[in-house]
Design a protein that fits this description.
- The chain is mostly helical and 160 residues long.
- It contains six helices and three strands, in the order ααβββαααα.
- The protein has two domains: 57 residues, Ubiquitin-like (UB roll); 65 residues, no CATH class.
- Strands 2-1-3 form a three-stranded antiparallel beta sheet.
- A hairpin with a 2-residue loop joins strand 1 and strand 2.
- The longest helix has 33 residues.
- It is elongated.
Length: 160
Amino acid sequence: ATPIDFAYAVHTDVGDTCVGAKVNGRIMPLMTELKNGDEVEIIRSKAQVPPAAWESVVVTGKARSAIRRATKNAIRKQYSGLGIRILERAFERSGKIFTKESLKSVLHRLARKDIEDVLASVGRGELASTDVMKAVFPDYKDERVTLAAPKQREEGWSKI
């Protein structure tokens, strides 16, 4: 096993925040193979998010599944942040103020189980901001104009 596996065996939070390890009093790479009797000290940082590459380094299933979960949550958090920015801009365009609370009452209409799910869906592009606006404000009309491509003139021997 590796120091990463050891950190996840102690606690998931220890593994998720692991940035380094001391093995027998010496700082060693996280990829170091541990032996029986090794004394391991985990160095942690709150800002750490486990990289997806750790999944190929670890030996235990517990560590591998925890890394997958942490990676998935980090990606979801990024999409959620993007969704907030998209919805804030859409609400601002229509002269409204965006709050997460405004989404609570329309979760069933948007077929989502929680607010974070709505935000992540908007960020991923699975749910359009106009659909959210229409759910929150039923009388909402999208004021933006979509420009259509100019029609091509048909030319050829039949249109001479």
